[in-house]
Specification:
Blueprint: H1 3-12, E1 18-19, H2 26-33, H3 44-50, H4 60-69, H5 71-80, H6 95-99, E2 117-118, H7 125-130, H8 146-166, H9 179-183, H10 190-199, H11 202-215, E3 224-226, E4 238-245, E5 252-258, E6 266-271, E7 277-283, H12 298-320, E8 328-333, H13 345-351, E9 359-369, E10 383-389, E11 396-401, E12 407-410, E13 419-429
Parallel strand pairs: 1-2
Antiparallel strand pairs: 3-7, 4-5, 5-6, 6-7, 8-9, 9-13, 10-11, 11-12, 12-13
The structure holds a DNA duplex (15 and 15 nucleotides).
Keywords: DNA-binding, Nucleus, Repeat, Transcription, Transcription regulation
Organism: Salvia miltiorrhiza
Pfam family, one: WRKY
Amino acid sequence: MGETSVEDAAAAKPKPTIVVPPRGSMVESLFTSGLGAMGFSPGPMTLVSSFFSDQGPFSFSQLLAGAIASPKLRDYANEESWGDSSENCKTSDDAGFKRNRPMTLVVAAPESLSPPFMLPPGLTPSGLLNSPGFLSPLQSPFGMSHQQALAHVTAQAAFSQSYMQMHAELQRSPADTSTEALVSHSSPSPSETLTEQINSEPRQLESSKIESSEVSQSDKKAAYVTTGDKPASDGYNWRKYGQKHVKASECPRSYYKCTYANCPVKKKVERSHDGRVSEIVYKGEHNHLPPQSNKRKKDTSVALDREVNNVDENVQELQNDETEEGPVIVIDDENDDEPLAKRRSSDEGQSVPASSHQTITESKIVVQTRSEVDLLDDGYKWRKYGQKVVKGNPHPRRKIQAFSKHDVGFFGPPVDQHYSVVLVTDLVVSNPGPT
DNA sequence: TATCTTTGACCCTAG
DNA sequence: GCTAGGGTCAAAGAT
């Protein structure tokens, strides 16, 4: 991922904002009360894209922008007075929006789409991205890194927006605002509904995949990225064929192949030093149904179950790390034609069928925060590994790195003492599974 | 004995 | 053409 492109992305577009409101309950209650009871059963991208179906075909990026730009949502934000003001959030004229917003979470939208979009209250970015209500790794069959989760945040936001449209009269509930409330909800949340949908029937998966394919027509890359996946329950058998330390990550990376005959699917699993899974990257598409019985080897099951447990632990810890004030986060999703990573020609041939449903976009997420980068409240710890003066930017750029794939340019405070941080990651819109 | 994991070496690609 | 880095192979060891 080129640093230049990150600079371009940061410099080219003004970043409208999404705001993390103070701890509240309404949207949270949306996620906890569940949409499943409403009888929804399309795939996740169907759900998201259907909200904007009357506006023509959209890429995932556009969907995200659409969520951000929703006037309904803005109206709702005004009504609820979730946040107080910030100069960085002067992307709309809604004074009410500015009134009560605390530290802000800002997600960028295309230039023409400026109204901010409110995220569920009561969640800091880290908690938000890792809460079960947002397709937690345990619930999602393919999980996501926190940057990828950012994209899901906006997708979920679009989802909640639609929900709010359908329930305009929904009253504000005094629900528990604690993270535990999100964890222990009994009825399926919208995200759960989505996840269950993905998990359920191959036929439904087919539908989901088609939707995701439609959503990301412009994407040219294949392979899907997951984090904190639930390997033990992904239904497939894997054989480890390699492990390596990669420079981009402090975590050792393990390589797995699907053991099914002639199945081209591979996955990479990265673990942190303490053995926790930090990222799982799938590549290719299964050409078979998942094994129905417990045919997996005992060792594999044990190892993978351990991964699942680790991911659970991670969610808990990140939630515990939450603070009241969240950073300003800007999502700038760009679908460029840059190669995702070096790929061997043999891989390209086997893993990217012409009709591949797997899509991936290289996403740049700009985070604005009042805090120093080391304190960036996204639930992860960062280390500085470089600093340089960037042409056209009076502030030195500090480079920080988290687990892997997150190349970050860090700018000085541009406005109102907010720092801009560009996260570069692989945003996934995909539904792995049998065909 | 079979299967799986480990790990060093090799291959390929990008810069 | 060289080098660095990621991905894969395959022999050896472990279970």
